[in-house]
Design a protein that fits this description.
Elements lengths: L10 H23 L6 H8 L4 H11 L5 H4 L9
Length: about 80
């Protein structure tokens, strides 16, 4: 769906907002479980992201990453 650009009063916006919040929380948990150190700026980048597709990409990266740089890598640079 991408970044939140819908009317904040709509149910669709609210659903997407909670999806992003949940995905950000899950991403932080994966990083913690994999012992990927995150700086305060990295945590802020994750928790302030309102683009569900971006959060999904970072989540997928985190499943195999060893560093924060690998979590935030562009698709072609992500670890295989």
């Amino acid at each position: 769906m991408g970044a939140l650009t819908l009317d904040p009063n709509s149910k669709t916006w609210l659903a997407e907002y909670y999806r992003c919040q949940t995905r950000a929380r899950d991403l932080l948990k994966v990083c913690a479980a994999r012992d990927i150190p995150l700086a305060a700026e990295d945590r802020a980048r994750i928790t302030s992201c309102d683009d569900s597709e971006q959060l999904d990409e970072w989540f997928d990266n985190a499943m195999q990453a060893n560093t924060a740089d690998e979590v935030f890598a562009e698709p072609s640079a992500a670890p295989q």
